[in-house]
Amino acid sequence: MSRHRPDTLEHSPLGRESAYPERYDARLLYPIPRAANRAPLGIEEGKLPFIGEDEWHAFEVSWLNARGKPLVAVARFRLPAESPNLIESKSWKLYLNGFNQTRFESLEQVIALLERDLAQAAGAPVTVELFGVDDEALAACRLPGECLDELDVEIDDYTPSAEYLRVGEEIVEETLYSHLLKSNCPVTGQPDWGSVLIRYRGPKLEREGLLRYLIGYRQHQDFHEHCVEHIFTDLMARARPERLLVLARYVRRGGLDISPWRATPGECPPESLRLARQ
């Protein structure tokens, strides 16, 4: 098998007992093609209806300097939504663990190696930033906009249904969010908890229906990135907003968190946010 050839999930490290490496090995990264999950949403490769990124934070990053002294950092990675592959999270963690007992001459060498390996796996350029653990850029903040979570709604359906998405005639520009997002890993079934933000201009979304729709992902099995794309495509089809941004901030699991966002072309990307649960 070639170094970064996408393969089936049956051959991935996900859901398997794994020995954690002590030396650097780029072959541990496991890419997964996005196309198979996008096809059911009517999304064609090369004709994406959105722009966006997958932003990852890694909180368990360490390596040795030239004298063997350990250094630690928090890493921020950004993969473009147009990359043909996402990278399976457990393989990413195993790959990063390979840095723990590997010596590097400089911080710049670590960043260059990460950018090279991750770009080869993703099939597109990946940006890497390393922060000290006390860096103010990592401070937790709150989502902007209006929270939907206090709405008193009755729920008996925990699968996503676009039928709940309804709009009125009034044209508005607003930002809404919920901390009640939950989906499940498509292989292990482990829960993935998160918060989701929706910023749009268009016919006003009926709030109770929107919250029911978002809670509908509670038993849905899919990767974080595809859940966000599912929400984006459903909102575009049902509400037809002029502008739309969908951003999810998933809770850290295994030392990694992921925050995908998708938006209509021309929409400004959100500032980097970290929530208390991350």
Automatic annotation (TrEMBL):
UniProt entry tagged with the keyword Oxidoreductase: yes
Binding site for NADPH: 89-90, 253-254
Transmembrane feature ranges: none
Catalytic reactions on record: 7-aminomethyl-7-carbaguanine + 2 NADP(+) = 7-cyano-7-carbaguanine + 2 NADPH + 3 H(+)
InterPro entries: GTP-CH-I_C/QueF, NADPH_dep_7-cyano-7-deazaG_red, QueF, QueF_N, QueF_type2
This protein's UniProt keywords: Cytoplasm, NADP, Oxidoreductase, Queuosine biosynthesis
Sites where the protein binds substrate: 87-89, 224-225
Residue ranges occupied by any NADPH-dependent 7-cyano-7-deazaguanine reductase N-terminal domain in the UniProt entry: 20-130
Listed GO biological process terms: tRNA queuosine(34) biosynthetic process
Family: Belongs to the GTP cyclohydrolase I family. QueF type 2 subfamily.
Protein name, UniProt field: NADPH-dependent 7-cyano-7-deazaguanine reductase
Organism: Billgrantia pellis
Gene name in the database record: queF
